């Protein structure tokens, strides 16, 4: 998998979707290229006085349907191709969610766990100064992703205010409540995944309370998703994060794991539970469960791991966890995949709700927020499902087809071909 290029993977699926729709290359060629890619260098004085220079990226894949929108990731392996693919997936996802955004993503190549809080703040503010010309509430609106959180979003909003001379909370979403965040956003991606699973159960005449599950990733998406699904009766026997894989055949104590991870920097390192054992990470995918919930990183289910999967259903909370090769294999084997661009859209739909509240200055209750989220998740699922049934394709292909139709229509209506 050394040569895995997530952007190429995205293009392959996009081309297939276009083919099923009967599009010629020129009908959608523009969607194959990001509109704008910015690479920046961020010099930081570290606490001990020495200087380090970090690479950062912001890619705006599309603004056809509205301002570019998507999270920012801090990760040691972040690079141009990863951020490009993540930005394109945002275009597709935002179109499926039918929210008025294009797609973008950002990244800094750094291991944030090695930085002090002061260094992290300086790095974040340095990054904002470099991408300042291309972001704004109507231009490009960042949000959290892997290894970023509400505090980092608050620093982004504050640095933007310092540069622009005005407090504009709608420049970034996923903020803490004290800085214009919204009730519900922190849980939105996980809650949206629960709604997706519930809709799948309804369509397949399954009772969610009878499902068993294994989860990879226990950060924002994995931990909230697992907690909410557990509360609905799903039995979660296996959870893995970067530190290890925990297994309890009687069902893990998800509440305890959630509290532990959230008081240990979103990490399960050191977690113990009576009846639970630590198993090799390589055994996570081969668990004999009903659902494999992917909530870590891309390229996890690929040519080398796909044959391990025993679960008949894969729920994608992470972006891009399944390569095209693995996807084809799962289709052949009858393993159903609820794809990222449909299933985890709750995060950005929740961000849209926050942005709407920031711009109107009128804040909703959590119950209102969750009710609207449920409605949006349902609509996204049904819109994808209708195409899946009509064309007899996978959920993923149907999702890409739906997005392609919406982006192409917006682009053509605006008429911005040169
Ligand atoms: N935060 C959000 O609102 C959204 C995030 N996503 C996607 O969901 C995924 C997870 O994001 P977050 O939960 O926000 O990130 P996070 O930083 O809160 O958590 C990431 C989790 O993945 C685990 N992990 C990392 N590498 C791993 C490995 N090699 N093996 C096993 N576990 C590993 C970490 O230990 C951690 O538990 C990413 O793909 C992200 O792009 C998608 C939609 C929205
Ligand atoms: O909330 C957002 O704007 C984007 C979240 C995100 O990065 C994602 O959906 O992958």
Q: How would you name the CATH homologous superfamily of the domain at 34-168?
A: Leucine Dehydrogenase, chain A, domain 1
Strand content: 15-25%
Bound molecule kinds, no repeats: 1,4-dihydronicotinamide adenine dinucleotide, 2-oxoglutaric acid
Query: Under the CATH scheme, which class of the domain at 34-168?
Result: Alpha Beta
Shape: globular
Structure description:
The active site is at 105 (proton donor). Keywords: NAD, Nucleotide-binding, Oxidoreductase. The record marks 145 as: Important for catalysis. Substrate binds at residues 69, 93, 351. This protein has helices at residues 6-21, 25-28, 80-96, 117-131, 150-164, 185-203, 220-231, 254-262, 324-333, 340-343, 346-360, 366-391, 395-414; strands spanning 36-45, 51-62, 68-69, 72-75, 103-109, 140-141, 212-216, 235-241, 244-247, 277-279, 291-294, 313-316, 336-338. With 418 residues, it is α/β, with parallel strands linked by helices. Among the domains are: 34-168, Leucine Dehydrogenase, chain A, domain 1 (Rossmann fold, 3-Layer(aba) Sandwich), CATH 3.40.50; 186-296, NAD(P)-binding Rossmann-like Domain (Rossmann fold). Strands 10-9-8-7-11-12-13 form a 7-stranded mixed sheet, sandwiched between helices. A 4-stranded mixed sheet has the order 1-2-5-4. A two-stranded parallel ribbon has the order 3-6. A hairpin with a 5-residue loop joins strand 1 and strand 2. Helix 6 crosses helix 12 and helix 12 (366-391) crosses helix 13 (395-414). The longest helix has 26 residues, at 366-391. The relative contact order is 0.14. The model has no long low-confidence stretch (mean pLDDT 97).
């Amino acid at each position: 998998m050394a040569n895995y290029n997530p952007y190429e993977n995205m293009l392959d699926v996009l081309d297939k979707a276009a083919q099923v729709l009967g599009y010629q290359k020129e009908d959608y060629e523009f969607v194959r290229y990001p509109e704008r890619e910015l690479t920046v260098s961020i010099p930081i004085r570290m606490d001990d006085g020495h200087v380090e220079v970090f690479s950062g990226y912001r890619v705006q894949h599309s603004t056809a349907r509205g301002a570019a929108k998507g999270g920012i990731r801090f990760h040691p392996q972040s690079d141009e191709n990863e951020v490009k693919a993540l930005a394109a997936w945002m275009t597709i996802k935002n179109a499926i969610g039918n929210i008025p955004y294009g797609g973008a993503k950002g990244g800094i190549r750094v291991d944030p766990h090695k930085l002090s809080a002061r260094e992290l703040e300086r790095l974040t503010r340095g990054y904002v100064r470099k991408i300042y010309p291309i972001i704004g509430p109507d231009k490009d609106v960042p949000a959290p992703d892997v290894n970023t959180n509400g505090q980092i979003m608050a620093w982004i909003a504050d640095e933007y205010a310092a540069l622009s001379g005005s407090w504009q909370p709608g420049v970034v979403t996923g903020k803490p409540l004290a800085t214009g965040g919204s009730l519900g956003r922190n849980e939105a991606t996980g809650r949206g995944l629960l709604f997706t699973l519930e809709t799948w159960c309804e369509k397949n005449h399954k009772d969610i309370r009878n499902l068993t599950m294994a989860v990879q990733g226990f950060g924002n998406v994995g931990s909230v998703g697992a907690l909410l699904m557990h509360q609905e009766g799903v039995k979660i026997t296996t959870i893995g994060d970067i530190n290890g894989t925990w297994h309890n055949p009687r069902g893990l104590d998800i509440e305890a794991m959630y509290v532990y991870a959230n008081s240990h920097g979103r990490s399960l390192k050191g977690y113990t539970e009576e009846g639970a054992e630590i198993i090799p990470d390589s055994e996570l995918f081969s668990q004999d469960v009903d659902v494999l919930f992917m909530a870590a990183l891309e390229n996890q289910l690929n040519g080398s791991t796909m044959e391990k999967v025993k679960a008949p259903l894969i729920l994608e909370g992470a972006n891009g966890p399944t390569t095209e090769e693995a996807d084809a294999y799962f289709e052949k084997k009858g393993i159903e995949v609820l794809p990222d661009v449909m299933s985890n859209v709750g995060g950005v739909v929740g961000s849209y709700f926050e942005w709407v509240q920031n711009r109107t200055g009128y804040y909703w209750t959590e119950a209102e927020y969750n009710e609207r989220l449920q409605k949006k998740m349902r609509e996204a699922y049904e819109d994808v499902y209708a195409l899946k049934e009509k064309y007899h394709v996978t959920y993923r292909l149907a999702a890409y087809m739906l997005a392609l139709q919406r982006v192409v229509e917006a682009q053509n209506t605006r008429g911005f071909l040169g």
